[in-house]
Amino acid sequence: QSYCHRLQHDMYFLTSTSQLNEQVVDKIVLQLNRVYPQILTNEEAEKFRNPKASLHTRLSDLLKHLQKKGDRHCQEFYRALQINAEQLFNDLPSRKILKTPDPTEIDTDKEQYMLNERGPVFFLACFSVAAGLALFWYCCNSETQVIGRARRILGFSPIIIGRHVRNICMLYLEDMSRN
């Protein structure tokens, strides 16, 4: 949805609410006038800050003027509104439409839960099996002659590898060294 359409949708809400007071409208107009890219010229800014006209008229004229200028100008208005009146910006009808969930959209929180339902124990078990298979393949490869070093590593690892698994690996390494 373009910013011009959003502004048209939000126009009644912005002009009818009493939350947009003169100070906030003046800050928005000044920001649109002074911040790069300059959205309002000096003459336009003076016109929309004229205290002789009512706030409702000035705001309505400003919003219509921005809609005529294009999408970029409307986007800058929304940015200025967010900076100067964040609570009002969050309460805009177009923001509420954007926040409503799309029924066809995937709920990432639910999807994340479904992927992680097994927990850290499952991950550690899978990692341990993969590490064990890699070590086994490395030690059984006939091209590598590191059985002596592997034996020392396995001998000093009673904390990492369980006692029964270590004994089986040590027996296998002794058999491999005899052959």
Describe this structure in words.
Keywords: Disulfide bond, Endoplasmic reticulum, Membrane, Mitochondrion, Transmembrane, Transmembrane helix. It is found in: Endoplasmic reticulum membrane; Mitochondrion membrane. Associates with BCL10 by CARD-CARD interaction. Pfam families: CARD. The radius of gyration is 34 Å and the shape is rod-shaped. By secondary structure, it is mainly alpha-helical. It is built from 11 helices and no strands. It has helices at residues 3-16, 22-34, 42-48, 55-69, 71-84, 86-90, 93-99, 108-115, 119-140, 147-155, 163-178. Mean pLDDT is 78; it is low at 109-114.
Q: Which residue ranges are poorly predicted, with pLDDT under 50 across at least 5 consecutive positions? A: 109-114
Shape: rod-shaped
Number of DSSP E strands: 0
Q: Any idea what the CATH superfamily of the domain at 3-97 is called? A: Death Domain, Fas
Evaluate the radius of gyration.
34 Å
Bin the strand percentage.
Answer: under 5%
Please, what is the average pLDDT? 78
How many helices? The count is 11
Secondary-structure-based class equals mainly alpha
CATH architecture label of the domain at 3-97: Orthogonal Bundle
Biggest sheet overview: none
Order of helices and strands: HHHHHHHHHHH
Helix content: over 70%
Q: What is the CATH topology descriptor of the domain at 3-97?
A: Death Domain, Fas
Distance between the termini: 74 Å
Domain CARD: 38-96
Protein name: Caspase recruitment domain-containing protein 19
Pfam families: CARD (PF00619)
InterPro entries: CARD (IPR001315), CARD19 (IPR043574), CARD_BinCARD (IPR042146), DEATH-like_dom_sf (IPR011029)
